[in-house]
From TrEMBL:
TM region(s), chain numbering: none
Pathway the protein contributes to: Purine metabolism; GMP biosynthesis; GMP from XMP (L-Gln route): step 1/1
Function: Catalyzes the synthesis of GMP from XMP.
Enzymatic reactions: XMP + L-glutamine + ATP + H2O = GMP + L-glutamate + AMP + diphosphate + 2 H(+)
PANTHER family, alphabetized: GMP SYNTHASE [GLUTAMINE-HYDROLYZING], GMP SYNTHASE-RELATED
Protein name: GMP synthase [glutamine-hydrolyzing]
GO cellular component labels: cytosol
Catalytic residues of the enzyme: C78 (nucleophile), H166, E168
GO-annotated molecular function: ATP binding; GMP synthase activity
Key words, A-Z: ATP-binding, Glutamine amidotransferase, GMP biosynthesis, Ligase, Nucleotide-binding, Purine biosynthesis
Signal peptide: none
Length: 517
């Protein structure tokens, strides 16, 4: 394992991902972790991340220099580079000269371990105020910029390396190569972390955890729960039952996709609970978004608990063996809820409003170590179809929060049709990957005047909300081609009764959220 020590910028997750792209397993530890704890995990290498602080700031997070004496290869990046320089006797100046953004880096020494085979001048991404002016004794300076005389150094004998820039950022054109050189050449690690090895490792771990007992899994139709279920199914087969609650708020074809495609690809045992009537009744007369969410979450839990009780009853004497609940928790959730080991302090993450807290199950979380892109790769490895593995995000409360106003069966049907047209056209235009997601929202409480055929109509508008995003925290509206928009508009107003207007949402996030409710 390569440990990435997180000094508080957003870069640590990115670094960990890039290391894994180099097919080396990596995890993140907070910079407050004591060095003996870090070393006790026997890392094959350590990477010190960048961070927002100046090494001169009073409350700057530090690093016990013992980390450099343990014989473990270390790579310092940006702030980590400066900490390293300072700890080992180099000079870091608080000059106020800053470099930010794309910068030209000159490799000043041939035969450098990190820069081998990369151009003498290359573009890198910089973000720093302080700068290193003298490398520690025994270190060779390997690169410089116009502003910074010591932009990289290395000591092959001690296997200590540092660069001022951010190789993990795509703007650093040879960054991945620099990272790989550190891992393979500097630290002598072999690239063995592959999708196949992840599956093998997880299957063995799940078998060891569950033994001959049973597990259940709530399928939501999303990527994470599908891949988690497929993985557990690969490990324990019929000891797993997947429960899919159809709340009637899914999009066209989605329930069938779970029912047919998922089962066909995995052979998993599936229990489908049609609860749409129950959800509709509970939502009657409700138009407040938060209340809708609460009701949908609450009903989901009730239905799921009922299904679970039935399963246990059916299992008869073996019922108490239904001891495990499968969850699609991902590594970013683990990191964001404080990292840590064990499952106790980790939030139970589920995208349908959360499962009950008093649940007496042990959790099986086979995706706890994985980033989203790795989850997709594992899904592919397990033979899940693209429609499931490459699926765009869709909120747990489904179309229930895309009808502004009360949710009724008629309105759901309208919205389902409009949404299906939009998805069809986006796919035909080859834009599925480019677009993060495209909610279609029915303004059910708004009546707009139109003219269709010879008569006036009073219909409803639908809103298109196509966005591009990296992580849904921020987003921009997608610049869809006009002819595509025209096609979508024509089709919706022709094919969906009662909809006589199509509106495009051109708001970024912030200030507008992705969903309307
Ligand atoms: P917003 O609307 O907050 O959405 O910009 C960010 C991302 O979260 C999804 N979303 C939800 N997902 N339950 C979910 O499981 C919800 O209640 C919910 N609300 C929003 C949204 O689709 C987007 O991907």
């Amino acid at each position: 394992t390569v440990l990435v020590v997180d000094f508080g910028a957003q870069y640590a997750q990115l670094i960990a991902r890039r290391v894994r792209e180099a097919r080396v397993y990596s995890e993140i530890v907070p910079s407050t972790t004591p060095v003996d704890e870090i070393l006790a995990r026997r890392p094959s290498a350590i990477i010190l991340s960048g961070g927002p602080a100046s090494v001169y700031a009073e409350d700057a997070p530090g690093m016990d220099p013992a980390i450099f004496e343990a014989g473990v290869p270390v790579l310092g990046l940006c702030y980590g580079f400066q900490l390293m320089a300072q700890a080992l006797g180099g000079t870091v100046d608080n000059t106020g000269a800053r470099e930010y953004g794309r910068t030209s880096l000159s490799v000043t020494r041939s035969g450098s371990t990190l820069f081998e085979g990369t151009p003498d001048r290359q573009q890198v991404w910089m973000s720093h105020g302080d700068a290193c002016s003298a490398a520690p004794e025994g270190f060779a300076v390997t690169a410089a910029t116009d502003t910074v005389p010591v932009a990289a150094f290395e000591n092959d004998e001690r296997r200590l390396y540092g660069v001022q820039h951010h190789p993990e950022v795509l703007h650093s054109t040879h960054g991945q190569q620099v990272l790989e050189h550190f891992l393979y050449r500097g630290a002598g690690i072999s690239p063995t972390w592959t999708t196949g090895s992840i599956v093998e490792e997880q299957v063995a771990a799940i078998r060891a955890q569950v033994g001959s007992r049973r597990a259940i899994c709530a399928l939501s139709g999303g990527v994470d729960s599908a891949v988690a279920a497929a993985l557990v199914n690969r490990a324990i087969g019929d000891q797993l039952t997947c429960v899919y609650v159809d709340h009637g708020l899914m999009r066209k074809g989605e329930t069938e996709q779970v029912e047919k495609d998922f089962v066909a690809a995995t052979g998993a045992r599936l229990r489908l609970v049609d609860a749409s009537e129950r959800f509709l009744t509970a939502l009657k007369g409700v138009s407040d978004p938060e209340q809708k969410r609460k009701i949908i979450g609450r009903e989901f839990i009730r239905v799921f608990e009922q299904a679970q009780a039935e399963l246990i009853a059916e299992a008869g004497a073996a019922g108490e063996d239904v001891a495990f609940l499968v969850q699609g928790t991902l590594y970013p959730d683990v990191v964001e809820s404080g990292g840590g080991t064990g499952t106790a302090n980790i939030k139970s993450h589920h995208n349908v409003g959360g499962l009950p807290e008093d649940i007496e199950f042990e959790l099986v979380e086979p995706l706890r170590q994985l980033f989203k892109d790795e989850v997709r790769m594992v899904g592919q490895e397990l033979g899940l179809p693209d429609e499931i593995v490459q699926r765009q995000p869709f909120p747990g409360p489904g179309l229930g929060i895309r009808i502004v106003g009360e949710v009724t069966r008629e309105r759901l049907d309208l919205l389902r049709e409009a949404d299906a047209i939009v998805r069809e056209e986006l796919t035909a235009a080859g834009l599925d990957r480019e677009i993060w997601q495209c909610p279609v929202v029915l303004l059910a409480d708004v009546r707009s005047v139109g003219v269709q055929g010879d008569g006036r109509t009073y219909g409803h508008p639908v809103v298109l909300r196509p966005v591009t995003s990296e992580d849904a925290m921020t987003a921009d509206w997608s610049r869809l081609p006009y002819d595509l928009l025209a096609r979508i508009s024509t089709r919706i107003t022709n094919e969906v009764p009662d909809v006589n207007r199509v509106i495009l949402d051109v708001t970024s996030k912030p200030p507008g959220t992705i969903e309307w409710e």
